[in-house]
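Propose amino acids for all 181 sites.
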């Protein structure tokens, strides 16, 4: 899985979540903030995309000189470096690789002259929106409802999330047939 180097902005603010939960005091702010992060992570896993653009990094094995970061949608490449069997790394310049992005945001990076490199370190930016205000309202509403569900189930009650959450997120869900990533 892709690692985000920066935590990124939350698509739902602490004040929005606190209001949705009808909490007045700020005593539970740390708990509510954690629930918003958890709900955001659940949403990103469900739809198969990062929400707010942030930097990620992965070390990937090249196949025929090509690597494919797992985060979506990729909006830009920060750096690419080849890693050789002895552990040495060699940074690639802009002309040493080409990036293409499919309609679903899947990026493929073709490295020219990868040679005997066993892995590639790729740093990139991925996400569907530059900021919280650009996140579709249905996604934000689903995150609020998931935050509420997690808050109500915090004592260990084994209740399923409301179906409305999946319905709100479904239009943005990335699905594949067969063995695709």
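Proposal:
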């Amino acid at each position: 899985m892709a690692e985000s180097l920066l935590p990124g902005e939350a698509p739902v603010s602490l004040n929005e979540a606190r209001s949705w939960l009808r909490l007045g005091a700020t005593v539970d702010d740390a708990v509510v903030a954690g629930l918003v992060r958890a709900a955001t992570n659940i949403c990103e896993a469900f739809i198969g995309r990062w929400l707010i653009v942030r930097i990620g990094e992965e070390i990937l094995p090249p196949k025929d000189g090509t690597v494919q970061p797992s985060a979506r949608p990729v909006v830009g490449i920060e750096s690419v470096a080849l890693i050789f069997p002895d552990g040495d790394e060699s940074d690639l310049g802009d002309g040493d690789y080409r990036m293409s992005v499919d309609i679903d945001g899947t990026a493929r990076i073709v490295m020219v002259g990868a040679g005997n490199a066993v892995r590639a370190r790729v740093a990139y930016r991925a996400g569907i929106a530059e900021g919280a205000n650009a996140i579709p309202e249905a996604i934000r509403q689903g995150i609020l409802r998931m935050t509420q569900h997690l808050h109500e189930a915090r004592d260990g009650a084994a209740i399923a999330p409301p179906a409305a959450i999946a319905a709100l997120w479904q239009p943005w869900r990335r699905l594949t047939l067969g063995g695709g990533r």
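The chain has two domains: 3-51+130-172, 54-126. The mean pLDDT is 89.
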